[in-house]
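fold-stage: in
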Amino acid sequence: MRHPILAALLITTALTACSSGRQVSNEEYGTDNARERILRGGGVNPTNAGLVVFGVDRSQQNEQGGPGGVSVNAYLWRATLETLSFMPLASADPAGGVIITDWYSPPTAESERFKAQAYVLGRQLRSDGVRVQVFRQIYRGGQWVDQPASSATNSEMEDRVLSRARELRSQTSASR
């Protein structure tokens, strides 16, 4: 090589141009779910993009949902929908695992109404894989007033979802 200094300078310049000069720490992105949301926000769906994302090959799924379908645990998703089916559904996002109901008044207590938000948190059937938040309002003075729902209500709904999800899984296993 005639000009080793020039070659070294060109290599250094090329490597410097490839770097943004900013290091990214692991904590910046948070949990795997946060990483997946970031990827989805950028137009990449890690569940069906044919990528191996954080050591999990999303294309090799069975009971946890398939490519292009539900991207959370299918048993928890279905069990949550069935458990909350007595309330009118406002929205359901299977990719994000969020189910929101509309207000529901029980026939025996028309001056009281409830609304639920459920979050299916993972791809595995685990006891911490679902969170249900129940909201309560009472009709007082011509308007609906927020009242706290019992924390036992939230836990009871989560337990019902988990029980139903286990039933669905065992029914599927028995039919194979």
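fold-stage: in (second)
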Amino acid sequence: MKLALGPVQYYWPKDMMTAFYREVAAMPVDIVYLGETVCARRHELREDDWLALADSLAAAGKEVVWSTQVLLESGAHMQAMRRIAENGRYTVEANDMGAVGNLENRRPFVAGPHLNLYNPAALDMLAGLGAFRWVMPLEMSCGNLAAMQRVMPEGMQTEVFVYGRLPLAFSARCFTARYHNLQKDACGFKCLSYPDGLEVRTREGLPFLVFNGIQTQSANVYNLVTEVQRMQEMRVDVLRVAPQSSHTGGIVDMFRQVMEKTLSPADALERMKNMMPGSPCNGYWYGEPGMTWHG
């Protein structure tokens, strides 16, 4: 079983991003996903910057994967996606079917979590197009994953999102800009002010959602550290941790120790409590409402 670090979902300044990936080079992760997956207006890092980061991480022994944007809204977005798909140097994670079409039978790719692969027929189709690894949809339960594992296409790897705020939806409207009474195309790059997203609370003051530009996330933090042994028994190949603005290294260390059985899941969860930006949840894994915690 390998440990992966997913793409940064938030808008961080370039200096913060480059410093973060210098730390990632020393983290006990096997795979690192790079790239802007949320909003094309986020230009702190350009394509050459991403490639430079990829080169440095590859030199540190990491398997580097370049992720494509999830929601494409213009011809310029399509062109950027095609350049990533055709980069020729690094494996690509396809996060929409347009990217799949550009990668089809050209080179092996990762089928990202936003492709909604919920049944064996869909997974067989992606395998036929060249996918060698798929990321389980975030809402899928462990029971459904087990059923998928029993009929996996030959050579297909399974990756599970095990930690982070859940990316629930994407919209053509920018919620962060709207919060500041700004138009999407004149947003002032307000996302830079929220390194872990903009928390939204209910009238009762309870955390509900997080706005991250055009992306809506869960306020609670999905955490499957107590399920690592079960996933090992199910022969899951890769566990994915989502980056956050602080304590990412600590979270990664906890998962690595649980994977290697040098730390109990209960102790890892207890140590993580002060590292998480919100309360834990794992409801989807049990086929329950996602915001719940099944202890």
